[in-house]
């Protein structure tokens, strides 16, 4: 009986953790942490979210530049986003984007 009770409690805890997780939405870089960027995904009606800067082996876009943009959603809703990136954050400090992968900078 203890095993069943423990299993139910563990399941409830996991469900609560999954439901309570909210990605950190952003409208500008300052909405994110020091090692994050404001990232716009490629999905239709994507909502900008804070995402970690790239480290060794993470995907990146060579020569990626932050952009100010206006995103349009259904029913005439729009969102202005400043200093945001598309698809991938740039590499973190001390890393370089080579062949679309973050690698430690030399020297």
UniProtKB/TrEMBL annotation:
Q: Which residues form the Prokineticin domain?
A: 7-101
Which of UniProt's keywords are assigned here? Disulfide bond, Secreted, Signal
| Entry-linked InterPro entries | Prokineticin_domain
- A single GO CC term, please? extracellular region
Q: Does Signal appear among the keywords?
A: yes
Signal peptide start-end:
1-20
Location comes to: Secreted
Record bears the keyword Signal: yes
- Pfam families per record: Prokineticin
- Name of this chain's protein: Astakine
State the species of origin: Stegodyphus mimosarum
